[in-house]
TrEMBL record:
<feature type="transmembrane region" description="Helical">
    <location>
        <begin position="117"/>
        <end position="140"/>
    </location>
</feature>
<keyword id="KW-0472">Membrane</keyword>
<feature type="transmembrane region" description="Helical">
    <location>
        <begin position="45"/>
        <end position="68"/>
    </location>
</feature>
<feature type="transmembrane region" description="Helical">
    <location>
        <begin position="152"/>
        <end position="174"/>
    </location>
</feature>
<keyword id="KW-1133">Transmembrane helix</keyword>
<dbReference type="Pfam" id="PF04238">
    <property type="entry name" value="DUF420"/>
</dbReference>
<feature type="transmembrane region" description="Helical">
    <location>
        <begin position="12"/>
        <end position="33"/>
    </location>
</feature>
<dbReference type="InterPro" id="IPR007352">
    <property type="entry name" value="DUF420"/>
</dbReference>
<protein>
    <submittedName>
        <fullName>DUF420 domain-containing protein</fullName>
    </submittedName>
</protein>
<feature type="transmembrane region" description="Helical">
    <location>
        <begin position="80"/>
        <end position="97"/>
    </location>
</feature>
<keyword id="KW-0812">Transmembrane</keyword>
Length: 180
């Protein structure tokens, strides 16, 4: 049984590394597709749903932090897995939106424009980076490697929280320019 553990760890690391590369590459390719798929007008509401998902994810991350500081491991686990599930749902919704709709240009002028683009670019860059961290944090927690989980969440948590919050802020800033 002991010889299987390193093999299982290698397999998990390989899957995490592949997903951490494949997800951002797939999203970038989908964003580059000029021919949009027509799935109906309902897809124009997805950015608003994504704003809600990111808002709830931000709250769940903070609640998860509260629970672990209270030593309520079970509540922490449920909360963080809920945040992870919402993050996955967000990804599907985000891809669906950009597969079916043109990107909405930001119409703000003046000082708000560079602020918007700073938040947007930092959000995008860190959203690519955080995938690897989140997948490893979840893997370590679910596989009972709590010390490794604690070590990686020192970096994962603030990045994930920043990505979630800036996702909401960027959404609120561009919301007036959406068609629906």
């Amino acid at each position: 049984m002991e010889t299987l553990q390193p093999l299982q760890e290698q397999k998990a690391n390989r899957i995490i590394n592949i997903l951490s590369l494949a997800i951002p590459i797939a999203v970038a390719v989908l964003l580059g597709i000029r021919q949009k798929v027509d799935l109906g007008d309902w897809t124009t509401y997805l950015p608003h749903i994504n704003g809600i998902i990111n808002s709830i994810t931000s709250v769940l991350l903070l609640v998860g932090l509260y629970f672990i500081r209270q030593k309520n491991v079970e509540a922490h686990k449920r909360t963080m897995l809920s945040a992870f599930t919402l993050g996955s749902l967000f990804l599907v919704s985000y891809v669906l939106y950009h597969l079916t709709n043109e990107s909405t240009p930001f119409g703000g002028q003046g000082w708000v424009r560079p602020v918007y683009y700073f938040l947007l670019i930092s959000h995008i860059v860190l959203s690519v980076v955080v995938v690897w961290f989140v997948l490893r944090a979840v893997y370590f927690a679910l596989s009972g490697q709590i010390q490794k989980h604690k070590q990686i969440v020192k970096y994962t948590f603030p990045i994930w929280l920043y990505v979630s919050i800036t996702g909401v802020v960027v959404y609120l800033m561009i919301k007036p320019y959406y068609i629906h």
